[in-house]
Amino acid sequence: MASFDIVSEVDLQTLDNAVNSACREIETRYDFRGSNSKVELDKKNFLIHLVTEDEMRMDAIEKVLIGRFVKQKLDPRSLDFGKEKYAAGKNIKKDVLVKQGLSRELSKKIVKAIKDGKFKVQASIMDDQVRVTGKKIDELQAVIAHTKKQDFDVPLQFVNFK
């Protein structure tokens, strides 16, 4: 039986490169001169900490971060921009979550989309991924093509194709 897994992951090294290049761009931009703006990556929890003085700069930092994600060939849909939190003094702090894995509800939507396609495959949910198994590789490739056409609001990768 042939199989593959549907996952939603972000490579840690590429993420680190994107955040570091965003930091360098913010440090060299004219509109951020003399400001207390920082972008830091928490590798353990997959969080990006943004700190700056006002809303305008926070929006600019978000746009720089999204631009760097695109340049590093990372999907910006994996970023979850939460609500602003006010830090000490005048600074605004924001934590941006980098989505890893598939939620239970999203996994169910993916399985339903595969079953609605009337493919001769079995799709099963395994923790934070979906495993698709079938007898023919052509069917599995058709499932991949069908799943890529759907919009699930998260970047999907197809791994462990056997």
Keywords:
single chain, 162 residues, alpha+beta, five-stranded antiparallel β-sheet, four-stranded antiparallel β-sheet, 4 helices, 9 strands, 27% strand, elongated
Describe the protein in words:
This protein is an alpha+beta fold and 162 residues long. The chain contains 4 helices and 9 strands, in the order βαββαβββαββαβ. It has helices at residues 12-28, 55-71, 104-116, 137-149, and strands at 2-7, 38-42, 47-52, 79-81, 85-86, 92-98, 121-126, 129-134, 157-159. The strands form 2 sheets. Strands 2, 3, 4, 5 and 6 form a 5-stranded antiparallel beta sheet that branches. α1 (12-28) packs across α2. The mean pLDDT is 89.
Number of helices: 4
Tell me the major beta sheet: 5 strands, antiparallel
> pLDDT under 50 segments (min length 5)?
none
- Derived from helix and strand composition plus strand pairing, the structural class reads alpha+beta
State the shape.
elongated
Strand content: 25-35%
Radius of gyration: 19 Å
* Average of the residue pLDDT scores: 89
Distance between the termini: 8 Å
Helical content (DSSP H or I, runs of 4+) = 25-40%
Work out the number of β strands.
9
Order of helices and strands: EHEEHEEEHEEHE
In short:
With 162 residues, this protein is α+β, with helices and mostly antiparallel strands.
Topology diagram in text:
Blueprint: E1 2-7, H1 12-28, E2 38-42, E3 47-52, H2 55-71, E4 79-81, E5 85-86, E6 92-98, H3 104-116, E7 121-126, E8 129-134, H4 137-149, E9 157-159
Antiparallel strand pairs: 1-8, 1-9, 2-3, 3-6, 4-6, 5-6, 7-8
